[in-house]
Amino acid sequence: MKAMLLSAPSQLSSGDINDAVAGDGETLVRVTHSGVCGTDLKIYNGGIPVDYPRVMGHEMIGEIAAGADAGTRVIVDPIVFCGQCEDCRTGQENLCTNGFLLGRDKDGGFSDFMAVPADAAVALPDNISNECAPLIQVMTTCVHAQERAPIASGEAVVVIGLGVSGQLHIQLAKARGAYPVIGITGSPVRREMAQQYGADYTLAASDSVGDEVRKLTAGRGADLVIECAGAASTLAQSIDIARPGGRILLFGIYTFEKAELPFYQLYYKELTVINSRAATRENFQTCIDLVSSGQIDLESMISHVLPLADLEKAITMLDERDDHRMKVILDHT
Ligand SMILES: [Zn+2]
Ligand SMILES: [Zn+2]
After folding, report:
1. Ligand 2 center to residue 98 CA distance, Å?
2. Does domain 2-138+279-331 have CATH number 3.90.180.10?
3. 57 and which of 87, 109, 152, 212 could share a cystine (Cβ 3.0–4.6 Å)?
4. How far is CA 35 from the centre of its chain?
């Protein structure tokens, strides 16, 4: 079968690999659409080390290819976990130390077929389109994060960094009844987008955003700051923006090991800092229901649909600054 093979950093080509075969407890899925994200870019350029050759791709949907359920449209949960360990048994399978990610630790979805654990293939309703369905995997990580920092109706929520995940956090916070929801980014295009997704206010990134947020929240600051930019400077800003007793949700992935932060303010305001990694299986159904019922709009977040053969182009697009680019989807059909 055909697959896009990464044979070394930045060495990507279409090639033939052994047909995927479903083993015991597995389902064979014909992949029809997939999404590309920053993790793929980091694997592609060698920032995240993998064994070569590797088929990347962890946001994929398709059809069950054989058996009683053949033809059923499914999204694949790319996190494979053991189901036996203490983490799995307590509902934290995203932290399973025996687990791995398809598309990074094992071959993923940039191929014709893949064999996945049967319960990792979650059925999709007809009213979710093929183009936007891969984005549900991204959304699960946002939903998981917000479950770790539950928003009460009427709470002031600030989202810093308004890429795909940031815009999803804006929509999810509105769906939870947050008010006001404030989006912060340097990009006027993405501020405009955030307003379309329901942000009550948007602010340009600047040193004075803390004061501006306090003005919009009766002098208090935000109940919850969701940091999606992944930079030390925006983490420091989050500490400034949060109200005394507030929470900061670290959604950006921090790879730096040293940073200057206002630690005294962190202490003095008695802030709660919450981390979140990946998602759990049950987040998939939650997301499918939110999209299917029209509470969350994924359709308008798709800016590009390219054929699978253009994977390299799709990945390198992520490296170029383009405020109009949102989600890039690959069509395998
Ligand atoms: Zn991803
Ligand atoms: Zn486990």
Report:
1. 5
2. yes
3. 109
4. 10
